[in-house]
Amino acid sequence: MLTIHDAVLSVGVNSILFSGDVDLSNRFPDWDLQVSASGPDFSTLGPFINVSGLPQESFSISGHVAIDEATWLTEGVDIAVGANRLTVNGQLVPGGSGKSQIDIQATGPDISFFQDFTAVEGIPPGPYDISATIRPDPLGIQVDDGLGVFGDNRLAFDGVIALRHELDGTALHVEARGPEVRNFVLLSAIPGHPGGPFEFEGRVEFHGDAIQLDGVRGTVGELRGTASGSVLVAGVDRGDFDLEISASGPDVMLLGDIASLQRFAGEPFSLAGNIRHQGSMVATTDLEVSLGSLNAQLQGHHVGEERLLALTIVASADDSEVLRKFAKLRYLPDGPVAFDGKVEISAADVSFTNAALGIGDYELSADGSLNL
Q1: Which of 39, 75, 185, 298 is the most exposed place for a label (fewest CB within 10 A)?
Q2: Can you tell me the mean pLDDT for 242-262?
Q3: Is 318 left (phi over 0), alpha (psi -120 to 50) or beta?
């Protein structure tokens, strides 16, 4: 048995102090040590743990560490990096044993520093408190009973966090709620989404620059919706998405202050189908829409920079009032409305293909273009 008292190991400007016992009678020595370490720059550890972008702040590590027949034991291990703190308790058993378990808790004044060494961008600043039970996994770590409190936002999570570049391969079931959805990082990359208090639940996976949503459902204020698909949260195409969605609410203006919808203020709405956003283009496939008495199916796309709209529309409404609002016309005949056909609008003209419009007893068909 070797007993160590206040031994110091220095590596550059970093130092490690340890005291305890080392049993050399076995092939692999057993350790029972009280350890403390400190240094002026935590980022110097990055190359050793294969993580770039670690904060350039002073750090300290202290606690009880033991190795008993190849089983690692930690008790009261406290890691501080600047004002951020991590405590660790538990054991790691070799051979993938299910007995391995580590309980962790992390706290700090500003959660946004995580974006310096992950692929996630736009994390709003604010204090955080994270706790979880973790176990080894072939991709990284298995998380159970994960709970994160970020300012006024709360996130519960279970699943696998991949210890790879940009968290690639991470797959979690998450439940989130908070007072403002625009501060929720998983959705902050999507342009134009409504604000307000939120609750979400579903499966989230990280694949490179993209987050994959599976069976996500939730509410934002009085809005309800579901989503499955991918959202790019980093890179030059940040904000692009391809989603199967549904949404509904008592007032279409809850979707946001959209000028084209203002004349429908107070009308209930619902929509369901595929929506894709790529650069300046928004495209839809089999999008079912209802607005007041209007029911429609839309397929097509809109390109903002070219002011191009191309839609195949099948629509009906109980009366022509909704068409008056859409067309900004003061007079149209009364009666139910039906439309079927393709409409293309550009800065230069409007084109109709196999378009048929019925209003009450009146019918109109159109094929061709009108110069604007």
Answers
A1: 75
A2: 86
A3: alpha
